[in-house]
Input
Amino acid sequence: MSDAYVSLKNLTLAYGKTVVVPDLNLDVRKGELIALLGPSGCGKTTAMRSIAGLMAPKSGTISIDGVDITRTPANKRGIGLVFQSYALFPHLSVFENVAFGLRLKKLPKAKIASMVEQGLQTVGLAHLSDRKPEDMSGGQQQRLSLARSLVMEPKVLLLDEPLSNLDARLRLEMRNELQRLQRDTGITMIFVTHDQAEALALADRIVLMKDGIVEQLGTPDELYNAPNSKFAADFFGFENIFEIEGSEIVGRTGRLTVLIDAKEGYLAWRPSAITIGSGPHQGTISSMAFAGELREYIIEAPLGQIKVTTPSSTPPFDIGSPIAFDLAIDKARHLSKNGEET
Ligand SMILES: Nc1ncnc2c1ncn2[C@@H]1O[C@H](COP(=O)(O)OP(=O)(O)OP(=O)(O)O)[C@@H](O)[C@H]1O
Ligand SMILES: [Mg+2]
Output
């Protein structure tokens, strides 16, 4: 891609002899916010560590703005890091933690003071500038870590689960703050999370990883509405996935003929896309959980377990009672065996 700003080419990343990322290719555009998403252990932090220069790739190249930085030391890359472990200086005040990097740059005192104040304002910590990190909550420490990186005006900011210690309300606030920052400053950001809602809300594009491999790369809309593999579909909430064989859905003990041309692959439904209370199929409700806006049911049917949600404003169905349901083909996503949507 010609407009790549951060470019990873054929990166192989390993710990000793254990390769965890075999061949990573990724182009990030200038000013873009990319979310790296995937289950625990899939290699997100490892990929970030290599971009930051904290681990050398076995092979492949990393470049920023056309310059190969694969062998450039971490502190010369112009990359800011906000990682899972904050690595704050415990003996320094909040102010001094943020000022630290600026002092190394030998900027004038007044300039440093105003940049630090601005940075602390941004993350809502201006009132705590005399505190020590150890006297702060986990969420406050994360925000301090963010401020410390931001004031350095990095070319690229790498954020590894930076919001994981925040409560729900702060998380949302910081999410919006990060988006605003990215728009205002134009910093290119790579953001690791395993929270799909966070990735969907924040990212320009999402990289979905599995076992060190990019499963799918696309806009939040594409990943949410058009996942192109069984893994991606499952990850983005198509929790009912059934294999097709010769135009039949194959279940645990039963088969269901479907009016679809496809002879193989999978059909996937979101729990909200399945109608219960009416329809041509029969099952038994085995459990129900109240989840605020929704009720979540598990139906035991000849096909296997089916997860269905209904608005909690509608009357509940009884556990143990037989129930009719409908798997409407027009609400299913068809996934072919090799991962392409048809
Ligand atoms: N220092 C290390 N030495 C050996 N193996 C490691 C090391 N760090 C990570 N790994 C392994 O590499 C794989 C990828 O780990 P990584 O930390 O990149 O995952 P992750 O996607 O960031 O997961 P999480 O969401 O849990 O943070 C895992 O199997 C992990 O056990
Ligand atoms: Mg990690």
About this structure: Helices lie at 44-52, 94-104, 109-122, 138-150, 168-185, 196-202, 220-225, 230-235. The mean pLDDT is 90. The two ends are 26 Å apart (CA to CA). The longest helix spans residues 168-185.
